[in-house]
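Structure first, sequence second, as always.
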């Protein structure tokens, strides 16, 4: 596919912006999952406490991969709580909730991240950036699976 230099630059900017959003959303979701891990109570404590730990640990690893992928695109990775919070649309929950409400809130946050990651998959595909597209596809697969598990718990 032939593109003008201008189009390439514009498209690359969109890919970088989408990766920055994915990084910020993932960091915000990790922090909310950690909060749920610490504070969940009730008869489902043991399974939810362990499940949330698996989720935030997976996110911690993924975040590093996303940031370092940005560096391979010669972009600089955003970091720090304040900067990332300002770049994410993922919400935040109260610290003390009924057990099911932690799960319901995390469902909403995964859905927010997924909607943004689908946009990232689209702009990467349109840019012909298959490595970024692959990263978005992999993250979508993992978030869709976690979403299924969280929703199944609520049924
Ligand atoms: Fe812990």
């Amino acid at each position: 596919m032939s593109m003008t230099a201008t189009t390439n630059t514009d498209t690359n900017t969109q890919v970088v912006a989408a990766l920055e959003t994915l990084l910020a959303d993932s960091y915000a979701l990790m922090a909310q999952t950690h909060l749920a891990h610490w504070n969940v109570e009730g008869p489902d404590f043991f399974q939810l406490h362990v499940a949330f730990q698996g989720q935030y640990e997976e996110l911690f690893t993924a975040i590093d991969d996303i940031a370092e992928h940005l560096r391979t695109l010669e972009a600089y990775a955003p970091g720090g709580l304040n900067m990332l919070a300002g770049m994410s649309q993922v919400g935040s929950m109260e610290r003390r909730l009924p057990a099911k409400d932690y799960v319901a809130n995390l469902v909403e946050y995964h859905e927010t991240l997924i909607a943004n990651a689908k946009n990232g998959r689209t702009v990467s595909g349109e840019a012909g950036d298959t490595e970024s597209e692959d990263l978005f596809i992999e993250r979508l697969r993992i978030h869709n699976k976690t979403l299924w598990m969280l929703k199944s718990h609520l049924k």
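Margin note: The longest helix spans residues 5-39.
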